[in-house]
Amino acid sequence: GNTQKNQSANSQNVDCDKETEPREASSEDQTHVQKSNKTVQNQIGERQAKIADSPDEQHRDQSTDPGRQNDPLPANEGTTGIRDRWIVRDEQKRNSDIKMPSGEMDKPVIDDNHDGTVSIRYDPKEEGIHELAVKYNGEHVQGSPFKFHVDSISSGYVTAYGPGLTHGVTGEPATFTISTKGAGAGGLQMAVEGPSKADITYHDNKDGTVSVSYLPTAPGEYKITVRFGDKHIKGSPYFAKITGEGRKRNQISVGSCSEVTLPGVISDQDLRSLNASIQAPSGLEEPCFLKRMPSGNIGISFTPREVGEHTVSVKRLGKHIANSPFKVKVCEREVGDAKKVLVTGDALKEGKTHADNVFSVDTRNAGYGGLSLSIEGPSKAEIQCTDKDDGTLNISYKPTEPGYYIVNLKFADHHVNGSPFTVKVSGEGTNRQREKIQRQREAVPVTEVGSQCKLTFKMPGITSFDLSATVTSPGGVTEDAEIQEIEDGLYAVHFVPKELGVHTVSVKYKQIHIPGSPFQFTVGPLKDTGAHLVKAGGPGLEHGEQGVPCEFNVWTREAGGGTLAISVEGPSKTDIEFKDRKDGSCDVSYVVSEPGDYRIGLKFNDRHIPDSPFKVYVSPAMGEAHKLEIAQFPSGPVQADKPAQFMVRKNGAKGDLDAKVVAPSNNEDDCFIQLIDQDIYSVRFYPRENGIHAIHVKFNGVHIPGSPYRIKVGKDDVDPAAVHASGKGLGDVKTGEKTDLIIDTCNAGAGTLAVTVDGPSKVAMDCTEVEEGYKVRYTPLLPGHYYMTIKYNQMHIVGSPFKINCTGITGEKLAEEGGQETSSVIVETVAKVSKGGNRAGVILPIFKSDASKIQSKGMGLKKAYMGKQNQFTLNAGDAGNNILFVGIYGPKGPCDEVFIKHTGRNQYQVNYLVRERGDYILLVKWGDDHIPGSPFKVEV
Questions:
Q1: Which CATH number does 4-244 carry?
Q2: What is the CA radius of gyration of the chain?
Q3: Where is the composition biased (Basic and acidic residues) (predicted)?
Q4: Where are the domains of the chain?
Q5: d(Cα 834, Cα 675) in Å, to the nearest integer?
Q6: 638 FRET partner, CA 20 to 30 A, in 266, 609, 651, 691?
């Protein structure tokens, strides 16, 4: 059999001719089966006559059609002139519309069944794909709009119908049915093409129909082709949208690099400011790591990809150091070769739930390269990797749910033989329950300069006095914004923008950014849209309590229009409520009946938003814990490496009190609890890091009201809102080409900078210190979309994650496709100050102005008199905003005095006094640019 593969698609073909016994298609990609169709023509004619004569018979016939049993929604097929019937469970206001292939809208008939459901009946008038929209209180029900294909009633045609022709889920069989009744003899051919190879199976139902199933292993659009007698049947090819709904992914990376010692002596201080790159004979240039070798010399660490002489460049501030560039020779046995990796073990064929499924990987004869493993399936499988004494690796994975899992195993960025592997996992699951809602989000109107702007958020249980907000314009000007409480717990930030572009809105509670802050707010048309621009935050994404609504906010304003899907998965059934605030934001609450670990998934247009899925522990009902109170909690920041404390009152509650502090690095430390009076306890903690700490206070294992508490440790100068990223590396890039970007941390304080790149391939990446912050360099190996996440002290900077489009260069592929890859670098930064001054917070705005539009007039521009006030005027009304500079220099130096008066609306009056004869030079600048005529020559 032949597997048809190219860069973007895999195809699977099955040919069947109607006469052999039913069987499953072989594992080969193409199977030929000889069969002849012997369906009796007049039986079909009799059945059609009955349908035409009896409306009741129409309903019975449709409901017993193969592939439609037990399915209350349309099975993606219909017939013109025959009424289709569906059942929808309903308890409130409902409506339904059908969009016909011509684009016109039609109304089906809705009947109340008086049992909590309604029936939807429709008499199709056109052939082709229809869309059925079923709405509940104005919102689409789950799965709506539904697509179904309507064909004509005449016999002799081969038709196909079923959900697998329009949609499906990765790792789950997608099914459809092919009807050949009355079509005569002929060969039936099926093919599935898409992002992954899809194994096809089929079964002859012995009634003129064939049931077909295919297994997609990657999300994306799949093309299903059905031919009869070498001709496409009606509707073929079909396009099915396969989503990764409910799929969980885990990954691990191990491996080895080649290390080469460089000549010369370099101090540790110099090492921080150095960066290195290596260029292969083909021209591929990648960043490489500098490290201190055991000998004390400096060495480079890299993954060799080609045989031959490589050039290593080591630079400081863009200039080569002594002896750079260096030459390094790579021989054939050092280049990583995925084909030489040996993989053994049955765990790549089948596995068991709740057990370690082990396989071995031998890379000893495969050269240098990184080994990356990802496992995707119904559960997030725990992965362990251990070194064996013989130099091989044992890798184990432990899934918790049965089903199909996809295992991608790469060495040196190429698949090993057999990868990706499809593994069938059997056994008992955890009986986790999943609830999902879906809502359509409309794009908000474009915001204009000078209009009233509003950003809303829900934060119950606080006082507005502790809230503050600022707005930073694209030009760098920061102003305070007004916060208004709209209703109990719902707040709005109001401001009036003065320029177009991306603004930064910072909202703080007790001087700490609220979840989601700093926010991006675009004035004018949106430059980009998509799931990466959706934000979510709130206590319901961090912790929860059994039986109590867990609330959080979702902001979709910057992402444009689309579909927002919210899912909650865990030990119990979940009730989800959604409220649209009609301003590009919404609030969500969910209630669970059992404690435990829950996963909150947020998708926008079928793609996870940043940080989704969120893992939330829902604690048992609070019980007596609600009696406890906190007292004397620090009102401001505390210092690192110094003890701090607060009080807890039990108020008669009986049980055990415990507390811990979680640092920004996620290190946990126990708090010291001491009884100081009846029912009053002192809780002492010792923070060891700067940044936002979380203090968890529990009573009988349950959080007390308000826990976990957030507290700032260290100086109040670390602010992610002050960090900005720019450069070519955030735009369009090319495979195999090294590109960079600058992350400006001036005035943001010292903190932890974390840069992560997710995309089709791993990227070689490094980070070096520069004057204004840090330079990040990376080289992508495959074309596609990459997402760069930049966090400062665990918080996204404005614009993060950034969407990067990478295009390929014709020629040999530098890596193989197969699942998302992640690369990251983390740097502990030092405090930096902008060139504009030594004081943090003084940043010169970026003015938008045009000096050529300034008009000047007055005698003082040409001739002046000693000892008298000489005058001229300037009109900068059309020149934008900037700073006006005026200077006069004569034969013996500057003039005695210059006086500038702003008379309003960028109109200026300038007076100056001179006491010596001669020729003077008069300079007038608007920012850095001379106005027309400047410098002027003035005779005194």
A1: 2.60.40.10
A2: 34
A3: 15-32, 82-97, 104-115
A4: 4-244, 247-431, 435-619, 623-713, 720-828, 851-939
A5: 50
A6: 651
CB contact at 8 A, 151 and 233: no
CA atoms within 13 A on the CB side of 702: 20
Instruction: Give the C-alpha separation, 870 to 940, whole Å.
Output: 10
The tokens 């016999």 sit on which residue? 155
* In contact, 148 and 128? CB cutoff 8 Å: no
**Banded pLDDT at 249 (limits 50, 70, 90):** low
Mean per-residue pLDDT of the chain? 79
Q: Of 155 and 223, which is predicted with more confidence?
A: 223
Q: How much is the pLDDT for 4?
A: 38
CA distance 841 to 607: 38
- Report the CATH superfamily, name and number, of domain 435-619: Immunoglobulins (2.60.40.10)
pLDDT score at 41 = 30
pLDDT band, residue 840 (cuts 50/70/90): very low
Closest CA to 380 of 400, 356, 407, 408: 400
Q: What is the 3-state secondary structure (H, E, C) of 140-172?
A: ECCCCCEEEEEECCCCCCCEEECHHHCEEECCC
Confidence class of residue 73 from pLDDT cuts 50, 70 and 90? very low
Q: Do domains 435-619 and 851-939 have the same CATH topology?
A: yes
- DSSP state, 271? H
Q: What does CATH list as the number for 247-431? A: 2.60.40.10
Superfamily of domain 851-939: Immunoglobulins (2.60.40.10)
Q: Residues 6 or more apart from 71 whose CB is under 8 A from it?
A: none
Burial of 582 (0-12, 13-18, 19+ CB in 10 A): exposed
Helix/strand/coil for 340: helix
Fold topology of 720-828: Immunoglobulin-like (2.60.40)
What is the pTM assigned to this prediction? 0.60
